[in-house]
Design brief:
rod-shaped; 2 strands; two-stranded antiparallel sheet; 82 residues; alpha+beta
Length: 82
């Protein structure tokens, strides 16, 4: 079985979508639904932490009067004030 570090973001999202689909379908036994829910929560946290890692790595270079300044990445919705 793959560890969380070996699962790509895309693989985790695909697995999460499959789990959500199965849970929405509603024809799984309660124990299976609980296991699927727990796995979905782990995958959701994994995707969130992978996105945070990528976000921290992305930096915008901005030319200023003093030269080039490194500025942390700001998500698009924050730029628009949403």
């Amino acid at each position: 079985m793959e560890t969380n570090d070996q699962v790509s973001f895309e693989e985790a999202m695909d697995k999460l979508e499959t789990i959500v689909s199965r849970l929405e379908n509603g024809d799984v036994p309660l124990e299976t639904a609980i296991e699927l829910f727990q796995e979905g929560m782990r995958l959701s946290q994994l995707c969130g932490s992978k996105l945070e890692l990528v976000e921290r790595k992305i930096e915008l270079l901005i030319e200023t009067e003093q030269g080039v300044e490194r500025k942390p990445f700001a998500p698009v919705n924050e730029d628009r004030g949403e």
